[in-house]
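Please fill in the sequence for the structure shown.

STRUCTURE ENCODING:
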């Protein structure tokens, strides 16, 4: 069993750190809001630290799962940051969905200190984290990935190294681009079916057994038709991810016309006060223009 730290106990990090503890790893956690860490400590066998630096003291692998690039920088650097507590030979695994540029920069910074770095964004949402069934897309040196992978399986159904540093984040961008276009298509289809007066539960059942089937259809088509959006992956988070995708596309020359359009649809939902609604709330723009 490994001695590990987990920094960031949000809706994803909280259960992920819990799976590590349940597998018998020696886990020390840190969260910006101390009450959240105390709640975790009351449920799981592990230690709580007052700073990222203290959480990382003496650990082999330090996991981080926070909000965005600036949040990663805030917990990794500085006098009380993760790097200040880690020893040469340890590895940072960043599960945050962040930019590929940040991953490459941190890999260089960590490498200069003799510390490994793996960018490892995840897919599967809160349910995947709670069920230990996440898909993890990794970038970094083979040796660093090889050390981290046997520990990450505590909460993964699939874990793959995609290439050098930044490759995990780039793969996650591909993932989010697929989802954005798919959810818009699903929203339009469900709205069309309802306008046509079809029995939508039956429609979803029959087309879900054919070429239209997808995770989004299986898990979101029904709730879309019911107008329920107060759960799941938030619009605010998706816009953050799409901004990362669009910024990267401007650098590499990829054309993302559908993603840019869907991003503006999500901006309209935010303007309605739906920033914390599930991404399937795209339907609301069609049913209530």
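FILLED IN BY: designer on duty
SEQUENCE:
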């Amino acid at each position: 069993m490994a001695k590990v730290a987990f920094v960031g106990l949000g809706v994803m990090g909280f259960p992920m750190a819990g799976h590590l503890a349940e597998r018998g790893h020696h886990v020390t956690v840190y969260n910006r809001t101390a009450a959240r860490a105390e709640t975790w400590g009351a449920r799981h066998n592990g230690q709580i630290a007052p700073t990222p630096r203290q959480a990382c003291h003496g650990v082999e692998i330090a996991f981080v799962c926070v909000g965005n690039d600036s949040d990663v920088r805030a917990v990794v650097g500085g006098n009380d940051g993760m790097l200040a507590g880690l020893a040469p030979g340890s590895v940072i695994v960043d599960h945050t969905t962040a930019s590929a540029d940040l991953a490459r920069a941190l890999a260089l910074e960590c490498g200069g200190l003799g510390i490994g770095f793996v960018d490892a964004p995840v897919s599967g949402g809160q349910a995947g984290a709670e069920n230990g069934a996440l898909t993890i897309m990794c970038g970094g040196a083979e040796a660093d990935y090889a050390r981290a992978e046997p520990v990450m399986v505590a909460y993964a159904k699939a874990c793959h190294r995609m290439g050098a540093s930044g490759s995990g984040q780039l793969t996650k961008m591909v993932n989010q681009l697929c989802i954005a276009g798919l959810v818009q298509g699903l929203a339009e289809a469900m709205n069309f079916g309802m306008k046509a007066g079809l029995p939508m539960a039956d429609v979803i059942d029959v087309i879900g057994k054919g070429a239209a089937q997808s995770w989004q259809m299986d898990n979101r088509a029904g709730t879309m038709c019911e107008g329920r959006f107060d759960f799941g992956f938030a619009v605010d988070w998706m816009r953050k991810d799409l901004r990362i995708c669009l910024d990267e596309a401007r650098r590499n020359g990829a054309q993302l016309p559908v993603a840019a359009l869907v991003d503006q649809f999500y901006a309209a939902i935010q303007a309605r006060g739906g920033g914390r609604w599930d991404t399937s709330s795209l339907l609301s723009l069609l049913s209530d223009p």
